What does this fold into?
Amino acid sequence: MTGGFARSVVNYDAGATTPAAGAFSAVGILLATLFLTPYLYFLPKAALAATIIVAVLSLLDLSVLKRSWIYSKADFIAVFLTLTGTLLLGVEIGVSLGVLSSILLYLFKTARPHIAIVGQVGQSEHFRNVLRHKVRIWDNMLSVRVDQSLYFANARSLEDFVTNRMAEYKSIEHVVLQCSAINEIDASAIESLEAINNKLESMGVLFHLSEVKGPVMDRLNRIAFTHHISGQVFLSHMDAVKTLTAQSASRISNPSFCDGKK
It folds into this structure.
């Protein structure tokens, strides 16, 4: 914008898209200063203020508050703090509040990642949440998908989730972690994955990975993680299902149905 709100909105309404608009504005201000000041001298300040207010009002979009409230209460908090901080305390403080609240909210949300047990949709190669779709699952296999990169703030959540599910399902022989939504795994998360592998191995359960992205696999290979896990790394989740189900004659359980509330 390179200027105050009043000049910025004039440039915006005029359709300015390059820095040349600033040069033309400067020329206009120079001409007004040289030739128009005698006529503007007696103009009431209230009229000048009204002109600026009318111009700036078009920059205010309060509908973003309603939209963010409907979409996400966390995003609404960040927008509200930014708006009120800017109006009451100044632009610098308002923007700082917005940035700080966004960082804190990001840490809060990613520290509680969405983790789902997935099953096969019909005869397709798609695997979806058992709580949302009619899917097919196997008694001896637990397929888990985590929809977030793994890092220090959420690594323990996956470990707790797998531990709790193992306590519920006594016939599990294989745990497959579908990594299609994992873009990065940091050092703390590696330790959690190793803890999951060791815990499962002590229970006689094999730990597998599927659909690991290339950059993530490169880092895992650097520390030979894939050689330490008890199971295998599969190119696709369908490959994992075919391979592991072919190794045993476990029966297929009844499909799970979504009640539409989760």
In short: The two ends are 44 Å apart (CA to CA).
